[in-house]
């Protein structure tokens, strides 16, 4: 008997759904801004997490590289502590109900609603040679992800607020036309969670798809690469390690250092009083490397046994399908499909 997601979500534990695209190597920004919270939420919520590979092909992917990235993202999520005994972690394309419900929801999403999405406008501009239909209907698939599991809460960054709002509209519209099927999800902004900025342009967020590799720390960067990238991080012309307006580079490094060491900003200022940027950057680099060391070790362990890894992602997909297939069946019945 497979372990299954409780159905419906146990009333005392709200269900959380979130997903991340395997569109590149996960960064320190993903880790401190999202994944650490994903891990912590496992204790208090009924968590369902996904590697959103269907979403990732809205941008052209090279097949062999893409396959590797999906697998690595899955293993890396486990390595940061997403415990598949406590929650569910699955690869989106292994649960065909996502694509099936996405179609039904696309037929309940208006052209005008999709055309207003800023992510669509941004990605159409940055991938002008491939403005495909999937890029346009991306939010209907995202709504399907969330609604299949009747999630109450969806932890998201600011850039996904518009998509979540549209998921709510789609759920309400469907429920209104066909009768109550879906839980209308709420956005969830975790108490803790830092926004990590680019090391090369601290006005921009650290992003896994940045063309400049020195702008981000990938979770699998070896210690010496981390230390080197930190050494090259953009700061300012002063020498004093203190948090202040106009010192975006230093503020960012202090935030990172604080997140990985647990020290507050005052303590950090005191620690580096009179010591200059060079020493500070070296300490930040070493602290990050230290934090990531166990993650990298666990990642290597998972990747060294592909058979065991496959067993886990198959089981997890089954677990997710148990709930997804029930919700899809309910929705299809309401629409009037012959079952
Ligand atoms: P891409 O470069 O492909 O757009 P990304 O690195 O910007 O990707 P997303 O896949 O859009 O990341 O985001 C995944 C999760 O990580 C989201 O919850 C997002 O809020 C969070 N996240 C991404 N970048 C940062 C960052 N620099 N600081 C904090 N959180 C981040
Ligand atoms: N679009 C999101 C990833 C994503 C997601 C979801 C987030 C896909 N499906 C469902 C929350 C809920 C992104 O690019 N960050």
Highlighted features:
three-stranded parallel sheet, Rossmann fold, binds L-tryptophanamide, 53% helix, binds adenosine-5'-triphosphate, Tyrosyl-Transfer RNA Synthetase, mainly alpha, two-stranded parallel ribbon, 2 domains, 339 residues
What does this structure look like?
With 339 residues, the chain is mostly helical. It has 2 domains: 15-188 and 306-335, 3-Layer(aba) Sandwich (Rossmann fold); 213-302, Tyrosyl-Transfer RNA Synthetase (Orthogonal Bundle), CATH 1.10.240.10. Helices cover 53% and strands 6% of the residues. The protein has helices at 28-41, 53-56, 63-79, 97-106, 111-115, 118-126, 133-148, 161-178, 223-231, 248-261, 265-271, 276-303, 306-335, and strands spanning 15-20, 46-51, 88-91, 153-155, 186-188. The strands form 2 sheets. Strands 1-2-3 form a 3-stranded parallel beta sheet. β1 (15-20), α1 (28-41) and β2 (46-51) form a beta-alpha-beta unit. It is globular and about 75 Å long. It starts with 14 loop residues before the first strand and ends with a helix. L-tryptophanamide binds next to β1 and α7.
């Amino acid at each position: 008997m497979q372990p299954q997601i409780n159905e419906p979500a146990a009333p005392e534990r709200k269900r959380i759904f979130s997903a991340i695209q395997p569109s590149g190597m996960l960064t320190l920004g993903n880790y401190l801004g999202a994944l650490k919270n994903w891990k912590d939420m496992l204790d208090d919520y009924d968590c369902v997490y996904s590697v959103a590979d269907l979403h990732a092909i809205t941008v052209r992917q090279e097949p062999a590289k893409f396959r590797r990235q999906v697998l690595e993202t899955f293993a890396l999520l486990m390595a940061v502590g997403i415990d598949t005994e406590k929650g569910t972690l699955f690869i989106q394309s292994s649960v065909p109900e996502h694509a099936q419900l996405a179609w039904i929801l696309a037929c309940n999403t208006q052209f005008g609603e999709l055309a207003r999405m800023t992510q669509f406008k941004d990605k159409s501009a940055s991938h002008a040679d491939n403005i495909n239909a999937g890029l346009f209907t991306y939010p209907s698939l995202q709504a399907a992800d969330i609604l299949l599991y009747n999630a109450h809460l969806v932890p998201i960054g600011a850039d996904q607020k518009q998509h979540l709002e549209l998921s709510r509209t789609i759920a309400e519209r469907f429920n209104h036309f066909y009768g109550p099927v879906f839980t209308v999800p709420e956005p969830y902004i975790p108490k803790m969670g830092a926004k990590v900025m680019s090391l090369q342009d601290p006005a921009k967020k650290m992003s896994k798809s940045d063309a400049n590799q020195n702008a981000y720390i990938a979770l699998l960067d070896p210690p010496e690469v981390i230390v080197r990238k930190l050494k090259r991080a953009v700061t300012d012309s002063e020498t004093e390690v203190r948090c202040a307006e106009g010192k975006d580079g230093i503020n960012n490094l202090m935030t990172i250092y604080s997140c990985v060491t647990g020290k507050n900003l005052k303590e950090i200022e005191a620690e580096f009083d009179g010591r200059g940027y060079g020493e500070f950057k070296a300490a930040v680099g070493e602290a990050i490397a230290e934090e990531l060391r166990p993650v990298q070790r666990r990642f290597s362990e998972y990747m060294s046994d592909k058979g065991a890894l496959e067993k886990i992602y198959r089981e997890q997909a089954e677990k997710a399908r148990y709930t997804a297939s029930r919700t899809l069946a309910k929705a299809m019945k309401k629409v009037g499909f012959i079952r």
